[in-house]
């Protein structure tokens, strides 16, 4: 399967000032202006995009190579939301994990195509975080495979991790670093060079409204700000796939709108977002695909329209997740104790 | 209400057994230790019932007992223990203050310290059962003491939690800990050099005379005074002890009512300019990890505490030896190798100190080699100048520059083998460490037996591997200066080989065990 070349409707992607001392200043509102889906050699078999004509501003170019191997840049993939021809970016099959007697994930299969905004919803303890941790290489599965862009995450972790951006839930950050240091650290660990990291850090800080907080320790941040800096760290290396666990938890509404907008632009330029959330409204509004996970298994997945049918997503979710318990026998709550 | 609090505390204790088997083993060992201590002390106290000198027993008991009360008062303040029964956790439940404070105070009776204290106090009742009134007084003062100690630890735990609530002040408690360590050293020295046989009883008698009239020792002195016929003093001291307990109870109540309406405070956040170490280190993953480690060594009390303690250790070792009459010239050779042992050892659980933040290294596919090397940089930054300057000072005090190669070789060997072993053990065997932001003296719940094994293995390992250099060094100092050069060669050689081997094995372990490292951090 081949990604289509970019259509004229899409904005030209600025050429990445690769290893040049003076990068072009870029508008701060465009957060991932340098988003460059790129190929890894190991994925070339499944994605032969490198020799496509550089349509509509997408320019083939080199990236800073990790092991000296030149890597070519793929053209930006034209994104049409329901296009079944988009390449599969994330493929999960037969994923299983149990902790002792407790089965957390019992055989999950999912397929996420390039350029989709994929929401994973489920009740508390359904195995969302466990699944996303196994996808991002943070938790070893008992069985099953995860491939990102054709690369097996558990067989070839170093290549796979390079193209994944991760926002884990409930894991600490190196919070004795200032916001600026944490961004820099994340960027350099991802193999970006000094100049690029500094410039992207500034862009991300502006886009997430963190400029004033950059010189404070992350330990002193509020919960929402911590979430935002972690989100910024997750996308600093312009990954092909962003895996975000509860990205909007404790983020204020204004920031949530900003972040959503950033993610939508990222998706529009060919990136893929997989996020988990409790907010059905948000999923329904933002995502184009959704999977409902209950007790470690996928009960429904597809486009939002397919999954929800005639109902709202919330109604459908409550129905699948075991139905609403009618609040009977709670009459005492209506006669107040004082 | 009280029953519910007691039940809650029992369940909190019982739930520790739901953690990993090793931790359970640790808890069981701790409990057995407490039980053995309690039984041992009880037997001693029962034995004292049948021996003569009531004055000596009373004086000894007053001094030891005062230390116990002081311990209950100071321990939580200095070490900042994690309070599972913090009054603020019950703030939203609308329980009347008096009942809440009573319930919380009584719930502190459930636990190993209270159990040991209770058994020991029963022992004192036996010791003083030399007459009906003495027994009665002993029973009353034992009850008062139990209440006093429990209330004292409750008050100081809450004060610590209340006053030292901000992150920065929590770290500050570590400094108090170091100061106490430094202050204890001369006291221990004095105690070691004191002629106990001749003046011991007089000293204890004098101390007991003073402490018996303080809140710390009054209750301990009551039955003893009665047994030695000082009835007037016994009654006065009993009044004093009662009053102490009552005051503590009032203080505890006041503190609870105050805490219920005072949520945690926020510290003023400080601004830092620029990228700090990240600017001056190479802009590569290894350089960034080194910069991050250096930043943490300066900013995180868990790191700088261990660095501050390192120069204190030789002091503690050398002072008693010099009092014992060893010549200063030989002692001057000790500090640098000693400090190298501890510096090499500081990194042996480095990955666990990151806690779950290490996910960033795993998720970004950081190479093990880069991670291992970057983390070594701060220790080398401190270690190389320490060995160079320290050896020069040592040798100039010793007076013969011929031993310079020996001391360099031994110290280098110890530091490098320590770092090599640490590089491997921190990647392969991380064990629960103090969490980021906690007081550096607070240990995670039940440091387990595996942790003790890893600690002793890495600690002893560097010394064992340095034995060749050490042997040559000793020969060089005591037998023939010819041995000094082999000491340097062997030390640097073995050190480098161990370091390379440790980093290599550690890199493999780090890369292979990334997910397991995160899992163990989550469990910790």
Automatic annotation (TrEMBL), chain A:
<dbReference type="Pfam" id="PF00005">
    <property type="entry name" value="ABC_tran"/>
</dbReference>
<dbReference type="GO" id="GO:0005524">
    <property type="term" value="F:ATP binding"/>
</dbReference>
<keyword id="KW-0067">ATP-binding</keyword>
<dbReference type="InterPro" id="IPR050763">
    <property type="entry name" value="ABC_transporter_ATP-binding"/>
</dbReference>
<keyword id="KW-0046">Antibiotic resistance</keyword>
<feature type="domain" description="ABC transporter">
    <location>
        <begin position="90"/>
        <end position="320"/>
    </location>
</feature>
<dbReference type="GO" id="GO:0046677">
    <property type="term" value="P:response to antibiotic"/>
</dbReference>
<keyword id="KW-0813">Transport</keyword>
<keyword id="KW-0547">Nucleotide-binding</keyword>
<dbReference type="GO" id="GO:0005886">
    <property type="term" value="C:plasma membrane"/>
</dbReference>
<dbReference type="InterPro" id="IPR003439">
    <property type="entry name" value="ABC_transporter-like_ATP-bd"/>
</dbReference>
<dbReference type="InterPro" id="IPR027417">
    <property type="entry name" value="P-loop_NTPase"/>
</dbReference>
<feature type="region of interest" description="Disordered">
    <location>
        <begin position="1"/>
        <end position="28"/>
    </location>
</feature>
<dbReference type="GO" id="GO:0016887">
    <property type="term" value="F:ATP hydrolysis activity"/>
</dbReference>
<dbReference type="InterPro" id="IPR003593">
    <property type="entry name" value="AAA+_ATPase"/>
</dbReference>
<protein>
    <submittedName>
        <fullName>ABC transporter ATP-binding protein</fullName>
    </submittedName>
</protein>
């Amino acid at each position: 399967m081949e990604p289509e070349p970019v259509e004229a409707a899409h904005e030209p992607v600025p050429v990445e000032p690769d290893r040049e001392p003076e990068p072009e200043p870029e508008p701060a509102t465009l957060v991932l202006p340098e988003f460059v889906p790129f190929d890894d050699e190991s994925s070339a078999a499944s994605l032969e995009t490198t020799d496509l004509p550089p349509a509509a501003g997408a320019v083939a170019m080199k990236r800073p190579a990790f092991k000296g191997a030149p890597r070519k840049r793929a053209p930006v993939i034209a994104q049409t939301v329901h296009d079944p021809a988009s390449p599969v970016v994330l493929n999960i099959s037969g994923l299983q994990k149990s902790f002792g007697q407790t089965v957390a994930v019992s055989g999950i299969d999912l397929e996420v195509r390039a350029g989709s905004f994929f929401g994973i919803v489920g009740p508390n303890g359904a195995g969302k975080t466990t699944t996303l941790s196994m996808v991002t290489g943070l938790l070893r599965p008992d069985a099953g495979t995860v491939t990102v862009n054709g690369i097996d995450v558990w067989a070839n972790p170093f290549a796979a991790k390079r193209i994944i951006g991760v926002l884990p839930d409930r894991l600490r950050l190196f919070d004795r670093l200032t916001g600026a240091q944490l961004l820099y650290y994340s960027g350099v660990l991802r193999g970006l060079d000094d100049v690029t990291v500094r410039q992207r850090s500034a862009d991300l800080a502006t886009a997430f409204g963190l400029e004033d907080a950059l010189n404070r320790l992350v330990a002193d941040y509020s919960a929402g700000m911590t979430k935002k800096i972690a989100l910024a760290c997750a996308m600093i290396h312009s990954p092909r796939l962003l895996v975000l666990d509860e990205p909007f938890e404790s983020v204020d509404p204004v920031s949530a709108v900003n972040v959503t907008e950033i993610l939508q632009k990222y998706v529009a330029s060919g990136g893929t977002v997989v996020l988990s959330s409790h907010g059905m409204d948000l999923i329904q509004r933002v995502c184009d695909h959704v999977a409902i996970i209950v007790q470690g298994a996928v009960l429904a997945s597809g486009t939002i329209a397919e999954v929800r049918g005639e109902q709202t997503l919330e109604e459908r979710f409550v129905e699948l997740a075991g139905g609403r318990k009618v609040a009977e026998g709670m009459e005492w709550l209506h006669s107040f104790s004082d | 209400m009280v029953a519910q609090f007691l039940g809650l505390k029992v369940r909190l204790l019982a739930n520790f057994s739901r953690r990993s088997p090793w931790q359970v083993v640790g808890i069981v060992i701790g409990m057995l230790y407490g039980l053995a201590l309690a039984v041992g002390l009880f037997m001693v106290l029962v034995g004292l019932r049948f021996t003569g000198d009531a004055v000596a027993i009373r004086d000894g008991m007053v001094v030891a007992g005062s230390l116990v009360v002081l311990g209950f008062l100071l321990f939580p303040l200095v070490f900042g223990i994690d309070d599972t029964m913090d009054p603020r956790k019950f703030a939203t439940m609308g329980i009347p203050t008096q009942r809440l404070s009573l319930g919380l105070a009584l719930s502190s009776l459930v636990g190993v310290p209270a159990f040991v204290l209770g058994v020991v106090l029963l022992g004192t009742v036996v010791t003083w059962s030399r007459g009906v009134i003495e027994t009665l007084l002993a029973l009353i003062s034992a009850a008062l003491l139990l209440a006093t100690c429990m209330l004292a630890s409750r008050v100081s735990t809450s004060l610590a939690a209340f006053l030292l609530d901000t992150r920065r002040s929590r770290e500050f408690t570590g400094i108090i800990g170091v100061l106490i360590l430094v202050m204890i050293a001369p006291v221990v020295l004095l105690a070691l050099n004191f002629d106990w046989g001749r003046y011991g009883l007089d000293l204890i008698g004098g101390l007991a005379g003073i402490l018996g009239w303080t809140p710390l020792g009054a209750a301990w002195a009551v039955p003893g005074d009665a047994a030695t016929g000082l009835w007037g003093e016994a009654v006065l001291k009993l009044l004093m002890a009662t009053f102490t307990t009552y005051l503590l109870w009032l203080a505890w109540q006041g503190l609870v009512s105050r805490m219920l309406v005072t949520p945690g405070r926020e510290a003023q956040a400080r601004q830092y300019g620029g990228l700090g170490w990240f600017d001056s280190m190479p802009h590569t993953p290894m350089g960034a990890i080194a910069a991050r480690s250096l930043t943490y060594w300066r900013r995180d009390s868990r790191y700088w505490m261990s660095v501050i303690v390192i120069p204190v250790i030789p002091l503690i070792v050398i002072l008693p030896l010099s009092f014992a009459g060893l010549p200063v010239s030989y002692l001057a050779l000790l500090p640098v190798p000693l400090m190298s042992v501890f510096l090499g050892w500081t990194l042996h659980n480095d990955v666990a100190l990151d806690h779950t933040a290490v996910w960033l290294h795993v998720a970004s596919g950081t190479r093990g080699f880069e991670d291992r090397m970057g983390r070594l940089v701060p220790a080398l930054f401190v270690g190389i100048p320490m060995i160079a300057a320290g050896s020069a000072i040592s040798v100039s005090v010793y007076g013969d520059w011929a031993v310079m190669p020996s001391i360099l070789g031994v110290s280098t060997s110890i530091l490098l083998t320590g770092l090599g072993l640490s590089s491997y053990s921190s990647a392969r065997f991380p064990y629960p460490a103090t969490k980021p932001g906690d007081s550096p003296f607070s240990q995670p719940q039940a440091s387990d037996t595996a942790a003790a094994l890893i600690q002793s293995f890495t600690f002893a390992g560097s010394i064992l591997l340095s034995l060749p250099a050490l042997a040559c060094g000793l020969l060089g100092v005591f037998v023939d200066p010819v041995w000094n050069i082999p000491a340097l060669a062997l030390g640097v050689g073995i050190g480098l080989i161990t370091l390379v081997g440790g980093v290599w094995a550690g890199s493999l372990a780090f890369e292979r065990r990334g997910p397991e490292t995160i899992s163990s951090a989550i469990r910790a």
